[in-house]
Amino acid sequence: MVLKGSIGTFDIISIIQMVASQQVTGLLHIKGPGKNDIFDVLIDKGMFVRAFPTTEPSVTSIARRLRKAELLGAGQHKVLTTGIKKESMTESDIPKRFSVPVSALKRLILSVTYESLHSMYALRSGTYEFEPRAIEYDPQLCEPMNTEFVLMESSRILDEVIHSNWKYRDDTIFQRTEEPARETPPPAPRKPAEAAGPEPAEPEEEFVIERTTTTAPEKADAVQKQAPEPARKSPGEVILEMTDGKRALGDIYSMSLLSKNEVILEFVSLLNAGKISVLHAPEHPAVLRKVSAFSRLVDMVKGAAMLIVTIAILLTILYYSKINPLNVREEKVAVTYSNFLKFIGTYQQIKLTNALEMYKLEYGSYPPNLRVLVEHRILRSKDLTFPYGSEYYYSLEDGNYILLAPKYAAK
User: Fold this and answer.
1) How many structural domains compose the chain?
2) Which of 105, 115, 122, 390 could form a disulfide with 386 if both were Cys (CB 3.0 to 4.6 A apart)?
């Protein structure tokens, strides 16, 4: 089953849901109008695995984020970059070759998935194509998830960021607010020595020094062993711990392994809770200045339009009233029977012309006669005749029609 089409017909959420509902396995290619708007989505038996941009190998972007998060040293990053080019290393090789916790790498891959989905949600044009085939991924790093849950969670994060009216740039610096010192409870009174009895003697600590010998292969294996998994912290605890009054928002985003929108939500939550405050907020960026200038221009245009409309209304009132401050000479048209018939005939002919065009749009050609318009309920029977019973002349020639008023209407 090869499924492809245009993004304008369906949005990204509907496309992913349509593919996942078929319980198929394969690769969904998303291509937007920009050169960086190219993404791949992995689907395994209707389950969502991951999403990532294809402008560069995913392991390359993962390595760059790990370097910014200081989970890879400069030398390790260079070795990994070289291994990607020469040895075709993947994300699964990173925990084996370097001391990177699996949980951190798994968190980063999920963040890249959410960021890719948020970028895809913004696409209003482009193409999609699903290719059914076997896909390869590491279950320890990319655990298949319920597709509906992933789409709902990513939509929730994006909606909350939009409604939070975020106004800080990446170079904004935050600081933790000082928490009030907690009062330590007074020590409990000790029992009298007589009632408590003699205190038990504390056992002496024994210090044992052992010398171990390790062969060279064992040392190499020890270096390659995976680093112990640290205690898992919530995103809010991670952001709060990194907020030290020196790191900017962009630095914390790079080091936290969270998606950009998740970092923004955590900052909003911490600001609302009073746990952090803004230390340095630069002025509005150039984009916001342009938006504000555009808003001022729109307000000026609206004001000018309202002024023009007001003047037009006043002039109309003056024109139809007896007041004539501009001394405009009015040319009066005699209301005669002949002029009245010409006015009605002109209006009726325009109505017939519009009805003929509507019929052609619906059926591909003009009708053989005007009575067909009545049969298809486009016009009423009285609309086909000139006032007082005179009929219009209608004929078809080479696919075009000729419509003429009665002869006396031209007099």
Assistant:
1) 4
2) 390
Burial of 16 (0-12, 13-18, 19+ CB in 10 A): buried
The answer to whether 245 touches 173, Cβ cutoff 8 Å, is yes
User: Does 316 lie in the same domain as 248?
Assistant: no
Q: What is the pLDDT of residues 82-99, one digit of tens each?
A: 988 888 888 999 998 888
The pair of structure tokens assigned to 75 is 């030398």
Residues 37 and 126: their CA atoms lie apart, in Å, by 9
Distance separating alpha carbons of residues 51 and 114, to the nearest angstrom: 8
Instruction: Say if 210 falls within a structural domain.
Output: no
Return the residue matching tokens 């890719």: 116
pTM of the model: 0.58
270, 298, 327: which is the final residue of a domain? 327
Rounded-to-integer distance, Cα 58 and Cα 111, Å: 12
229 in a structural domain: no
Residue 112: CB partners within 8 Å, gap ≥ 6? 50, 51, 52, 58, 61, 62, 65, 259
